[in-house]
Amino acid sequence: MARVLTPRAEDFPRWYQDLIAKAKLADNGPVRGTMVIRPAGYAIWERMQAEMDARIKAAGAENAYFPLFIPESYLKREAEHVEGFSPELAVVTHGGGKQLAEPVVVRPTSETVIGEFMAKWIDSYRDLPLLLNQWANVVRWELRPRIFLRTSEFLWQEGHTAHATRDDARAYARRIVHEAYEDLMVNVLGIPVVVGLKTARERFAGAIATYTCEGMMGDGKALQLGTSHELGQNFAKAFDISYSSAEGGREHAWTTSWGTSTRMLGGLIMCHGDDNGLRVPPNLAPVQAYVMVVKDGEGVGEAAAKLRDALHDAGVRVALDDRTDTPFGRRAVDAELRGYPVRVEVGPRDLATGNAVVVRRTDGSKSPTPVADVVGAVLAALDADQRALHDQALAHRKSHTVEVSTLAEAIEAAATGWAMVPWSAVGVQGEAEANGHSVTVRCLLRADGSVPDSEDEPDLVAILARAY
């Protein structure tokens, strides 16, 4: 197959940009830092949305929508929050040809505006927990944009909840990170993630704890794919989110927030893509099986249409490509770039022997298959290749992760992958030193791999890496 992408090993950033362009996933927007998500890319995002939305609702949250414009004064109520976001804010000072009495911020995140309305809607302990989620766009003025990974405007979901106790809030923040985020990333996106606790230096502005899902990309760097935050009572006190307790007293609520975004698309590309393009895990793929007419005539078109219908009836997301006025080689290259998990190629020669050719994107194998057996072969391939992509990514992460005992060794190891080092050998001062080498503490884990409650726990392990 003709080479259409810069090889990953030669120039990973160029390969990434090439793939996005050639697979027609997205384009740069007219304003620096913005992006246009093309239909092929948006179809994948829609599948991510649907899968994530189902998991969020299973955790009890309901969808709502809050304004894009937020009074500047709202952000100033929580000092750490506004300080953390100030460099990224887009602020509107004029509207309708007149200067506004108060500037409004274009939504960078919604803790403040949702906090305002939580305060209105919550009166009694009977109103808790209040579990909300919204699907929206946000704006964070990005100085070094990269499509899907860092753009000035991106799409996401953001959850916001209020609880009667800190224990309830913590349990819910952890439930989301495991049951919604980790489950989606591992079982649908096929990306093995490490779930851990962010350090104080890395946690969300205004939070008391941040839990993260970290994935390793093809070049050994880390990507933060989703976070869930315990906000304590910081926002509840700033916005007076309070309730009458069962004992009759007035108490401030404990709140959480959590989010994932179109950054997951970037992670999908960098985790599973190869030199021929994207490889989409079957559980996620908008098109799982792509039936292609190699050359028309001799009943090929009719046979291909029947295969499409049989696959559809078997529950496979399937599409038919019968554009015989376009060279087959070009169409096959496009299918490789788009990462369709399975192609079913139907041509006169194969059909004459009662076969079609089943092509698997994950390993590139091509198997002549009796037409009557195609549906079964496709279903088996989809199941096997979902596991294969995850297992390949996990093997890559394991082979590029080393255990070290000193900060210096961790910084050196982070040049090519991840380093696991005792947190006691890093600490706050060591973390600052690592940052000076463009290395960050991605998260903290207990020795058994579980998520700690605090970075002050003994015997914690830190994962250090370069990151996107």
Automatic annotation (TrEMBL):
SUPFAM superfamilies: Class II aaRS ABD-related (SSF52954), Class II aaRS and biotin synthetases (SSF55681). GO terms for cellular component: aminoacyl-tRNA synthetase multienzyme complex; cytoplasm. Keywords: Aminoacyl-tRNA synthetase, ATP-binding, Cytoplasm, Ligase, Methyltransferase, Nucleotide-binding, Protein biosynthesis, Transferase. Consists of three domains: the N-terminal catalytic domain, the anticodon-binding domain and the C-terminal extension. This is Proline--tRNA ligase. The gene is proS. Residues 32-281 form the Aminoacyl-transfer RNA synthetases class-II family profile domain. PROSITE patterns: AA_TRNA_LIGASE_II. GO terms for molecular function: ATP binding; methyltransferase activity; proline-tRNA ligase activity. Its main location: cytoplasm. It comes from the Bacteria. It holds the Pfam family tRNA-synt_2b. GO terms for biological process: methylation; prolyl-tRNA aminoacylation. It is found in: Cytoplasm. The keyword DNA repair does not apply.
